[in-house]
């Protein structure tokens, strides 16, 4: 019989519980489960496992509303990452995860360790990572500290991804004052594994060794998960732990060593040590496997002398993994990790007690029953308040103050539409030699699957991240729908068949009904779109309390989408070449509410956002994809931020080629026609519009011929002829000028 | 051609390089581990690929230059063996003294990942025989420390002896400051040993060998090598 650990004095325990973020009723549950006051280590375990970050206590009831199944889904939410079948006996494994709070405190390391963490979530399942993407939201560059944050985040993502040798191939960036005090860093990794060699985290086999591999444990990031579960405020400053420090070289070694061991059959279960480190990995692995676990912390590789059990269990030191091995396979596994010069230590074994027991220096430091730690975890259905609907704006009542030429020049240089080249140029997008469409070349990144090549195929994945936070703020349900639809559209626009998404739900304080209402509504919209588009959610992450001094970010349900192309050569980009007909697929009505034109040109952020007609979305997208796969489409671009003329300008700038354009449709004010953000639309460049228009008519898809490419300007029928070269100058100048070293 | 690629723990472009050599020669070269102390007999070419050898927290390539395998690579080069060092491999060649000069931080102090163009300065080497002199080709560069530096006397000697293999240039072949993104002395992108059997270059021609991925601008370099040894 195990001696129980020394409990804290009751008053001290209650006080610490509050400091660790446990609410009084949550602490009462701790006492009921243990039947006594907790030790310091036990209190640490409960507080991180029941933190918002680890327990999803405010979001879980809503997340259940998301569709997660499809015939091609192998593992949906609940594992380290989602797994889908992409053909050729291969699986794509992917997930997106936030590192918002650390990236604001220490931008370089916060962003770098965000990349490291999401990579581990993917290779822990047996996948070689083949692509990274990142969805970033910054405040205005003139806001305090913001340039340092932008620079540090970009350097951190590059510094980590470039060294581990995984190409960073895509992503998105928005700027808005709502992120001045709380930028968002959402990192996504996509990996490839044989579909019959997926590694899961459920521990099994009483007596089997528990093995620690990777970096040593230090005192960094203690209580990081708790920090990520609270708003920023002045009094949390001194309790704020140091941000973790990443070492991409060790991560690279860990990837190679894990994949080498995974090629054997020595591993029973494996999980990375992410948020809440050794605590969450050991508790979750044992809990999922319905077994007990006993750890001897003296055997944990330690970077510093004199670490306590509490510190080791709560440390978020990076580049560490926990594994359950088959008995007798320790020496074989150790040899692989030693070859890669990584620590390898047996730190415990599985038991039949259903408890987690932590020993250190001859004492029991924690002894907790696992079942109630999970089943009694708090679960809140917090009150919600609906976001009030905004009126639909009548485009005819909004005058055009500048005309299309000036508006286009300003829009292509605006923060949300300007070239992201300054960012991409710091990310190695080509390492691996499989990147067929790099950032800026197409609506989604396209990476050939090398493992498919080895099987005689040439299959490729298309990947994108999408969200339009200003739509989500105006109408969270339509915004959630739009985020999913745009990801689907971007995959479609390169010719890929969209398969599944990962979601990264970034919201404010869920204890405020209006924030919880945004969350619930966004989920409703996302669920509707996922269902209509056969585009299920297979993994995700929730980041709440994104507030500073009570001011919340825009609701930002970032969507990471993955699709497949049977042959990499089928992919099309957005770059325009001369001598092609331009055809718009989808209906243009001139929707100005929440458009970038309205914000940047008319100085207004109002009105209802454009609605997404999911039936039309599906019909238009399926039509476009089918046409791309016939080989007749030379370039394709979806129409989103900035509308039709901005989309055309992006194609023109990418190809260095102009176009002559037809006049705006009768009945729609010209500025609404050119800059409205109606959804479900694409521009296709084809040799001859007639066949395409006939096919569209036969399929009941709205289509119109918009013009023909050629020349060096976008020539509007209404008059102005806008030089592509001058647009490029405006487009390219913005970020370098803002970020120029002083 | 019998080629082998050296694998350091932080090497990350070994698969790219293997695919490029496979495309040119028809077979995939073996990987050699950094702790090996001898090279297999009968090798024609040793490749030091891109990456972050031992993390490169010290000067890039400095630790790799002291690794067990590098002693063997130096002996191989001294015996007249052919060595190709790309990116981190070029840094190692400089650190190991197989090529003169050093690769400093990029002039912008930022990692640069973008396409560049290089002008072929001589086409009479085992690495460049399939190019024409003056031909320009495109390649990806991806490095934080690619700013080639040597003192003026060394640079003059290199120029005089015709050991500059590749120079950063515009797509039209003009050697300009704007085309020299990392700030290299005299736009030097690739450098040869006096016997023309060691080539170090910063950009990655191995990323431009496949028409389905990003064109084949870099393929002639690998075909040149294959041809040199096929003839031998």
Multimerization state: heterodimer
What is the number of beta strands of chain B?
Answer: 11
> Radius of gyration of chain B over alpha carbons?
16 Å
Q: Which word captures the global form of chain A?
A: globular
CATH class division of the domain at 572-742 in chain A: Alpha Beta
Can you walk me through this structure?
The complex is a heterodimer of chains A (742) and B (232). Chain A is an alpha+beta fold. Chain A has a domain at 572-742: Alpha-Beta Complex (Phosphoribosyl-aminoimidazole Synthetase, Chain A, domain 2), CATH 3.90.650.10. In chain A, the strands form 5 sheets. Chain A has a 7-stranded mixed β-sheet. In chain A, strands 23-25-22-26-24-27-28 form a 7-stranded mixed β-sheet, sandwiched between helices. Chain A has a 6-stranded mixed β-sheet with strand order 1-2-3-6-4-5. In chain A, helix 7 packs parallel to helix 8, helix 8 packs parallel to helix 10 and helix 20 packs across helix 22. The longest helix of chain A has 21 residues, at 513-533. Chain A is globular, with a radius of gyration of 26 Å. The model of chain A is unreliable at 234-240 (pLDDT under 50). Chain B is of the alpha/beta class and 232 residues long. In chain B, 23% of the residues lie in helices and 24% in strands. Chain B is built from 5 helices and 11 strands. In chain B, strand 10 and strand 11 (198-201) form a beta hairpin. The radius of gyration of chain B is 16 Å and the shape is globular. Chain A binds chain B through residues 155, 158-159, 162-165, 247-250, 252-253, 256, 340-341, 424-436, 448, 450, 458, 568-569, 741, and chain B through 9-13, 15-16, 19-20, 50-52, 54-57, 109-114, 140, 142, 144, 204, 206-207, 209-210, 212-214.
Notable traits:
heterodimer, A: 742 residues, alpha+beta, Phosphoribosyl-aminoimidazole Synthetase, Chain A, domain 2, seven-stranded mixed β-sheet, 28 strands, B: 232 residues, alpha/beta, nine-stranded mixed β-sheet, two-stranded antiparallel sheet, 5 helices, 11 strands
């Amino acid at each position: 019989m195990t001696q129980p650990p020394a409990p804290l004095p009751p008053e001290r325990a209650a006080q610490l519980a509050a400091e660790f973020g446990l609410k009084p009723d949550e602490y009462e549950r701790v006492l009921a489960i243990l039947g006594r006051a907790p030790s310091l280590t036990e209190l640490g375990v409960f507080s991180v496992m029941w933190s918002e970050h680890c327990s999803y206590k405010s979001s879980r009831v809503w997340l259940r509303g998301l569709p997660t199944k499809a015939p091609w889904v192998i593992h949906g939410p609940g594992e380290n990452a989602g797994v889908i079948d992409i053909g050729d006996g291969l699986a794509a494994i992917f997930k997106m995860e936030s590192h918002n709070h650390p990236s604001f405190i220490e931008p370089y390391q916060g962003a770098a360790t965000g990349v490291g963490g999401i990579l581990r979530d993917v290779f822990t399942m047996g996948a070689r990572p083949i692509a990274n993407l990142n969805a970033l939201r910054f405040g205005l560059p003139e806001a305090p500290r913001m340039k340092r944050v932008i620079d540090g985040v970009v350097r951190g993502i590059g510094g980590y991804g470039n060294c581990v040798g995984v190409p960073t191939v895509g992503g998105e960036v928005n700027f808005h004052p709502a992120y001045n005090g709380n930028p968002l860093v959402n990192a996504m990794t996509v990996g490839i594994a044989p579909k019959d060699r997926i590694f899961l985290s459920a521990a099994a086999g009483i007596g089997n060794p528990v093995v620690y591999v990777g970096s040593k444990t230090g005192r960094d990031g203690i209580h990081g998960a708790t920090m990520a579960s609270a708003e920023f405020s002045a009094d949390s400053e001194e309790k704020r732990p140091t941000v973790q420090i990443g070492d991409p070289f060790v991560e690279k070694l860990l990837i190679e060593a894990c994949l080498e061991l995974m090629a054997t059959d020595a591993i029973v279960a494996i999980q990375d040590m992410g948020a809440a480190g050794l605590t969450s990995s050991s508790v979750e692995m044992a809990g999922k496997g319905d077994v007990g676990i006993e750890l001897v912390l003296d055997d944990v590789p330690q970077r510093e002398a004199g670490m306590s059990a509490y510190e080791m269990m709560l440390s978020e030191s990076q580049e560490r993994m926990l594994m359950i091995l088959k008995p007798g396979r320790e020496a074989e596994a150790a040899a692989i990790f030693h070859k890669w010069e990584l620590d390898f230590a047996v730190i415990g074994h599985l038991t039949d007690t259903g408890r987690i027991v932590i020993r250190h220096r001859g004492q029991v430091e924690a002894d907790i029953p696992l079942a109630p730690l999970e089943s009694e975890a708090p679960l809140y259905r917090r009150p919600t308040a609906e976001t009030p609907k905004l009126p639909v704006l009548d485009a005819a009542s909004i005058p055009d103050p500048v005309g299309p030429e000036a508006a286009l020049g300003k829009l292509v240089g605006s923060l949300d539409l300007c070239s992201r080249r300054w960012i991409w140029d710091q990310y190695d997008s080509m390492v691996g030699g499989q990147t067929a469409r790099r950032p800026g070349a197409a609506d989604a990144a396209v990476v050939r699957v090398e493992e498919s090549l080895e099987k005689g195929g040439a299959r490729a994945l298309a990947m994108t991240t999408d969200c339009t936070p200003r739509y989500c703020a105006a109408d969270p349900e339509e915004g959630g729908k739009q985020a999913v639809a745009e990801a689907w559209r971007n995959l479609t626009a390169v010719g890929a068949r969209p398969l599944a998404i990962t979601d990264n739900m970034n919201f404010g304080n869920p204890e405020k009904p209006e924030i919880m209402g945004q969350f619930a509504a966004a989920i409703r919209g996302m669920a509707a779109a996922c269902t209509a588009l056969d585009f299920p959610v297979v993994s995700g992450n929730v980041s709440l309390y994104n507030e500073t001094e009570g001011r919340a970010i825009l609701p930002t349900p970032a969507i990471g989408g993955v699709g497949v192309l049977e042959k990499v050569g089928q992919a099309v980009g957005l770059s325009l070449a001369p001598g092609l007909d331009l055809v718009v697929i989808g209906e243009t009505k001139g929707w100005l509410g929440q458009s970038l034109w309205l914000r940047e040109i008319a100085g207004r952020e109002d009105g209802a956002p454009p609605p997404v007609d999911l039936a039309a979305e599906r019909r238009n997208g399926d039509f476009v994809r089918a046409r791309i796969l016939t080989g007749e489409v030379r370039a394709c671009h979806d129409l989103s931020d900035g509308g039709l003329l901005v989309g055309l300008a992006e194609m023109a700038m990418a190809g260095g080629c102009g176009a002559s354009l037809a006049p705006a449709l009768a009945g729609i004010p010209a500025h609404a026609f050119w800059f409205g953000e109606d959804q479900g639309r694409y521009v296709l460049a084809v040799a001859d519009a007639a066949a395409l228009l006939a096919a569209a008519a036969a399929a009941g898809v709205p289509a119109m011929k918009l013009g023909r490419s050629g020349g060096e300007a976008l020539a509007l029928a209404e008059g102005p002829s806008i030089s592509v070269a001058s647009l490029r100058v405006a487009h390219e100048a913005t970020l370098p000028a803002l970020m120029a070293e002083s | 051609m019998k080629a082998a690629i050296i694998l350091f723990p932080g090497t990350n472009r070994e698969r790219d390089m293997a695919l490029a050599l496979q495309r040119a020669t028809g077979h995939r070269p073996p990987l050699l581990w950094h702790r090996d102390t001898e090279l297999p007999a009968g090798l024609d070419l040793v490749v030091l690929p891109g990456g972050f050898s031992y993390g490169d927290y010290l000067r890039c390539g400095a630790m790799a230059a002291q690794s067990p395998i590098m002693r063997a690579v130096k002996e191989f080069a001294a015996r007249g063996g052919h060595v190709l060092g790309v990116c981190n491999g070029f840094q190692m060649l400089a650190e190991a003294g197989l090529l003169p000069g050093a690769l400093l931080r990029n002039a912008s102090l930022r990692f640069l990942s973008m396409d560049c163009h290089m002008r072929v300065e001589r086409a009479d080497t085992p690495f460049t025989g399939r190019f024409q002199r003056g031909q320009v080709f495109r390649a990806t560069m991806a490095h934080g420390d690619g700013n080639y530096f040597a003192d003026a006397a060394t640079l003059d000697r290199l120029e005089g002896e015709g050991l500059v293999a590749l120079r950063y240039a515009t797509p039209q072949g003009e050697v300009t400051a704007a085309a020299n993104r990392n700030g290299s002395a005299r736009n030097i992108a690739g450098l040869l040993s006096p016997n023309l059997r060691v080539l170090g270059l910063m950009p990655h021609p191995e990323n431009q060998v496949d028409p389905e991925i990003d064109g084949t601008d870099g393929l002639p370099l690998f075909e040149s090598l294959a041809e040199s040894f096929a003839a031998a």
